[in-house]
Design a protein that fits this description.
- The protein contains eleven helices and no strands.
- The radius of gyration is 16 Å and the shape is elongated.
- It is mainly α.
- The termini are far apart.
- It has a single domain, classed as Alpha Horseshoe (Serine Threonine Protein Phosphatase 5, Tetratricopeptide repeat).
- Helix 7 packs parallel to helix 9.
Length: 190
């Protein structure tokens, strides 16, 4: 099993896309497992995260795809885990092999509360991943995540940024027929 493939049926597309586009890790062997903090963050195991960060475990430890505990917790919507990792001084702007940040991963899954935590901790809402040129705003617009769009607008994210195909968040919202997001972005970009 590729160490970057996650068992998240809701966002299998995103996980598969990230795996194929951003990471070419070798398959895991029986003796090659993620460090405990990465596993705890992915599972939202707050007691283990608290214990490991108190023991001064490397909070920004990475797997073969350069995913950090913060990225895994943000992707999976583990708000308290994200907060604990931020309090342990996790770098909120680290990116994986494809240029995806914790904020982009939270945005792609409509975790608006986590986006708020990350932005308040200094995360840039305008980082651009390297596989398609998407920002958190573009991901959110494409996927129809209204709550996330509202958070990103509040954080003054750049709604005019374009992906590698020249499409903005508004272009994606129109293409995917997300009426409420079209209205929000039209007001914001004019």
């Amino acid at each position: 099993m590729n160490s970057c493939v996650f068992h998240h049926s809701v966002w299998l597309f995103l996980s598969l896309f990230l795996t194929l586009a951003a990471c070419t890790a070798e398959p895991e062997t029986a003796d090659q497992q993620d460090p405990p903090l990465l596993t705890a963050a992915e599972n939202g195991d707050l007691p283990t995260i608290q214990r490991l960060t108190a023991e001064n475990s490397a909070v920004d430890i990475r797997d073969a795809c350069l995913w950090t505990p913060l990225m895994k917790a943000a992707l999976n919507g583990h708000t308290q885990a994200v907060l604990q990792l931020i309090q342990a001084n996790a770098d909120v702007n680290l990116v994986d092999k494809g240029g995806y940040s914790a904020l982009m991963l939270a945005a792609s899954n409509n975790h608006a509360e986590i986006i708020d935590l990350l932005i308040n901790a200094g995360a840039s809402p305008d980082l651009v991943e390297q596989t398609g040129g998407f920002t958190a705003m573009i991901w959110s617009a494409k996927l129809g995540h209204t709550a996330t769009i509202r958070q990103l607008i509040s954080a003054q994210a750049d709604a005019t940024a374009q992906d590698f195909d020249g499409k903005s968040a508004l272009d994606w919202a129109k293409e995917m027929k997300h009426a409420e997001i079209i209205t929000l972005l039209s007001q914001y970009t004019e």
